[in-house]
Structures are given as C-alpha cells and as structure tokens.
Amino acid sequence: MNTILSTFLKKKLPVLLLAAPFVFLTACSTTSDDSAGDGNNASVEDRTGGGSGSGDGSYEGQTGGYNDSGMNDGTAVNGQAYSGDPLSDPNSPLSVRTIYFEYDSITINSEGQLALNAHAEYLSLNPSKSMIIEGHTDERGTRDYNLSLGERRGKAVADFLTASGVQAQQIEVRSFGEENPVALDHSESAWQLNRRVEILY
Amino acid sequence: MKLNARSSLFFLLFSSFLLFVNQAAALLEVDITGGFQSATPIAVVPFSWSQSGKAPVDIAGVVSSDLTRSGVFSPLSVNQLPERPQIDGTINFPRWKNTDAENLVIGQIIAVGQGRYDVRFKMVDIFTGKNSLEYQYNVEGKNLRRVAHQISDKIFQELTHSRGAFDTLIAYVVVNNDINAKKRVYTLAVADSDGFNEQIILKSRKPIMSPSWSPNGKRLAYVSFEKDRSVVYMQELKSGKRKTIAQFKGINSAPVWSPDGKRLAMTLSKDGNSEIYVMYIASGVLQRITNHYGIDTEPSWSPDGQSLIFTSDRAGKPQIYQIMINQRGRSGSPKRLTYEGNYNAGASFSPDGKSLVFISRDRGSFRVATMELATRNLQILTRSKLDESPSFSPNGKMILYATELRGRGILEAIAVDGSNSPQRLRVLSGDVREPAWSPYRSR
C-alpha cells in the first residue's frame, strides 16, 4: 500500500488530492464480490426432439453487478457535495464505465484515459476491489477475429491500469467480440457505439 | 493448465432440459432469388399417392426445390407438364419432347401401414426412352423428406457426375436481436439442408458462436458465453450429451475438427494473446501451434489433415497463413497465402483442398472471396456488405455464408463459380448467422 501511494504521490498528486478523503475511508471496506456466476444458464436439448417439459427460464443474471454492502460513506470536501460510494457518484470520473475506440484500433483516447486514471486510483487504493474489463467490437469483419480484437482492446485498458499501479489480479479481461452490440443498426453511428470496452465492478 | 476438471472429466447429461419444439418445421425459410440462365430444364411429375387426400410429403415438390436451389437445374412448373404418367404406366414421349426437359422423374408413395411407406421413383431419358435411375425405399413417415433429398442426390449425381449434397444438415445460430441485451435469446439449431426439420441444440441468454461438425456428422463443437465468457463445448447431437473442451483464462474459441476426428484446432489466449492450439480430444493434450504477439485465430484444417490455415495480423492487417502440422504439433513456420487487399480472414478449404473461401474487404465491404491455391487468383463472389462465416458445401459446389439484408441477418448460398444469384435462408423473426454445412451423412 505504501509503495503504491508513494508512486501515486509522485505521479498523480493533483488528482489524488481530490480523491484522497474518500479513498482512505473506502480502502478498509470489505472484500468485493468478484465471483462470476458459475451455474449452468443454458439448456441443451436432445436432437431427437419430441420431449416435453421446459428448460427455459433457467438463465442467470449478468455478472459484474457490483455490491456496495460494507462501503463507508465518503466525506464531502472542497465543495464536492456528494456523500456516498464514489463508484455511484454521478459526477465522479468513476461514473464513466465505457471507453470508445476507433475502427480496428486499440488506442485509448484522452477522454478514456481521464476516466481510467480515476479507476486506476480507485483500484490502487482499494486493493480488495476487482474489475471485469469487457472488450467489444463492431460487426465488421469476421466474428472470431473480432473476438480477439475485443480482447486486445480489453488488454489495452488493463495495461493502462496496471501501468498506473493497479495489481494484475484485480483485473479480469473478457472479450465478447461483436457478439454483444449495444446498437443494432448496421451504420457508422451504431458501430461507433459498439467499439468499446465496458468496465464492470 | 487450468481446465475445469469437474466438467471435463465426465459428460454432462442435459436430457432433463428437453424443450418441446412446437414448430419444428420451417423456422428457416428458403427464398430463391434471381434466375439461373444456365440451369438445365428437368421434369419432376408429382408422385402418385395410394390414398385419397394429400400425400404426407410432396416428394416431387421437395426434389424440385432441391434441384432449383442447386442452381444447376430448373424444374418445369406443374402447368408445363403435358401429362402425369404413373410409374408403371405408358409415357407419351412425343408430348415430352415438346417440352424443354431432357429427363423425366416419376414416382409413387404407398402407405403400407404402421406409419411406414414404400417410395419408388425412376428417371427416364426423354430422348432414348430408357430408365437412367430406378430406386425404392421403405421408410417411416418422419423420414419421407429425407428420402426426397436422397432422390435429389441420385438425380444430381446421375446428371452432373458430382455427388449431391441435399441429404445433409446445416447448423446455425438464431438470435432475436432485442436492443436490451438481457432479453436476447440465442439458439443453436440444426436443420435439413432446405431448412426443414429444425432441431434445437442449445438455447441461451448469452451468445453462441462457431458451430463446427465432427467428420462423422454426429457431434458439434461450438462456443457458448453462458458462463459470461467464451468456453468451447462438444455435444453429441443424438443424445444431447455435452462436454467442456476448453475454458482456460481468456479466449476459448473457433474450434474445428481435424479430418481424422481425433483433434480439435482452436484459438486460446491463455498464454497471453490469441494463438492457435491443437487438442487431442481423448487425452486433452494440447499442442501450441502459433507463437506471435499478433492475433492468430480462425484455424481450419486442410482436407488431408497435414496443415492448418489461419488468420493472423502479424503483418499489420489480417491475412491468411498456412502452417504444416504433424502428430507432434507444428512443423516449420507459417507461410502467408494472401497478399491482395488489406483484410482477408475466416478462411476454410474446399473439399478437394485446391481452393480457399474467406472474407475479403472489397472497397469497404466485407465479401465472400475464393482463391485457387495453384494460381493465387482471388475472386470476389458477392456484392453484399457484411458477409461472414463462409464455408463450402460437402460436394464443393456451393458456398454457404451469413450476411445482412435490410437490417436482418440471413444466410445465403451461392455457386462457387458465382453463376447464380444467391439463394437466401432467413428466419421468420430475428437474425440467423454462423452457418456450418454438415459432412455427408452416413446412411
């Protein structure tokens, strides 16, 4: 913890000054819930068909749902009126959970870097917290290549975070390639929204 | 090596998850577009039926639509038929010579009780008057459509001297593309080559990708995200028994069976980034085939099992490479096969091993392309924008792929020489994608 802090004091003092008050309070909160649901949530059916009964409805929810039990309230400082979990402060850069990318690119733009700096600090100072980084692509090109490209985007974000002091074991990269679009059109504007990395606590 | 021992050590039985399939037929709809200028006219007379009312299956209708879909034949319409001869009756040849058809197919269906049927057909050369084919079958009612496809195969073989691929199956993924990701339902299904007799293999709220047939046609390998990340599974179609093949850290994707059925090539990123591996299915032994910081994925076996082709962006943009494979893994270094254009990916071999089919970026669009290995001549076959997942039919005559039409995901099939307009297979609602044509079925 101290070495992480000293790195940060050298590198990112100005941001830290803002973040420090709630960071110290939340650093001693309980462990996160990072378990991915391991239950079987798909049904397999007999090729012969004709059976009866229902295998439907056995799906489980999304992972990455973040659990705020055990969190302490932050303290308002410097006119920041928000008191509560910094992760749910809509005005915090931590509220940015999606990083967008150019076509076939893994370059994190300045907006993305700003948000990731905040996430890096949060994770560095809350070593019990963990994050899932989901890489996504637009639909152009082949599905399996896009699955790899999505992972590469996720790793670019993970590398950025670890270079900022986050421990590798706090991060898990997953790729969905082009399989989970948020916009369903087949247009440039939809593709822009789909080329993304999502951050899930 | 962190394979989940619990699920890899034994097959899981999912029979308790049986879903009643209430509308088994025609979730996939075949839609034949455009004309076939070079198609050969043929006469297929409606089969006579031993009882009153309609026959349980219009075998002549199934045969006609098979032959039409091939792009090679154009069956006469029913009102172009000058007469409807019985299989053992006389044929008025002069009247048939006035049609465009050179061959005449006649048949009958007889209900023989206990749900079984005798089917007989023959094909007659209109100019010589000789029978070129004559076969009979005794089957259960549920197999009548399959008999029709087998008849189509016999006719195709007789007249083109190439094996027909009508009595085959296709696997595909259907998704109701709800804007709310949590409401999406993904279905992996298998149907006859004409879209009928759909059987559901897997239903999930999470994406399903990359179905791949075992060489004996009895199993599928595929990728499912039901655990919120990509995992490779192998499932026996008849029993529904399923086994987890790969759930390492990172990507587990793109499984393809070796021609001998003993190995699966796949993409894993467990060692850092996407690399090609070969797994011996019985032992789980893994061989790493590629080693590069670029993306290596989409492996596909050559028909002789001696090499793999794959997509790699090691030179900057995705291109197709080939690497030799032996029992111990790779031998030699990858050799680049494509140089034309800046995006060539998702390749697979033709059954004779002489050509590849893949997706190539052509003036901003992603289109189906073929390349003869001897000449390296790249030919773009389609005019669509978002083609994916192309593969050859088992007889090498057609290419099946996924594309997008007016906002919907559909499947199309096109002749390898690009001679016909694509025929379309669509679902009544939702998108269909990831088609995989089965190998020939064992009889």
Short descriptors:
heterodimer, A: 201 residues, alpha+beta, 60s Ribosomal Protein L30, Chain: A, 2 domains, 4-stranded mixed β-sheet, 5 helices, 34% helix, 12% strand, globular, disordered N terminus, B: 443 residues, mainly beta, Neuraminidase, Rossmann fold, 6-stranded mixed β-sheet, 5-stranded antiparallel β-sheet, 31 strands, 8% helix, 44% strand
* Major sheet characteristics of chain A: 4 strands, mixed
Corresponding CATH architecture of the largest domain in chain B? 6 Propeller
- Identify the most extensive interface between protein chains: A-B, 49 and 65 residues
Shape of chain A: globular
- Main sheet of chain A: which strands, in order across? 2-5-3-4
Summarize the structure.
The complex is a heterodimer of chains A (201) and B (443). With 201 residues, chain A is of the alpha+beta class.
Explain how this protein is built.
The complex is a heterodimer of chains A (201) and B (443). By secondary structure, chain A is an alpha+beta fold. Chain A folds into two domains: 47-84, no CATH class; 92-200, 2-Layer Sandwich (60s Ribosomal Protein L30, Chain: A), CATH 3.30.1330. Chain A is 34% helix and 12% strand. Chain A contains five helices and five strands. Chain A has helices at residues 2-11, 13-26, 110-125, 143-163, 188-194; strands at 42-44, 98-100, 131-136, 171-177, 196-200. A four-stranded mixed sheet of chain A has the order 2-5-3-4. In chain A, strand 3 (131-136), helix 4 (143-163) and strand 4 (171-177) form a beta-alpha-beta unit. In chain A, helix 2 packs across helix 3 (110-125) and helix 3 crosses helix 4 (143-163). Chain A is globular. The relative contact order of chain A is 0.16. Chain B has 443 residues and is mostly beta strands. Chain B has two domains: 5-27 and 167-437, Neuraminidase, CATH 2.120.10.30; 40-160, Rossmann fold (3-Layer(aba) Sandwich). In chain B, 8% of the residues lie in helices and 44% in strands. In chain B, helix 2 (59-69) crosses helix 4 (144-160). Residues 1-26 of chain B have low confidence and may be disordered. Strand 1 of chain A pairs antiparallel with strand 10 (199-204) of chain B.
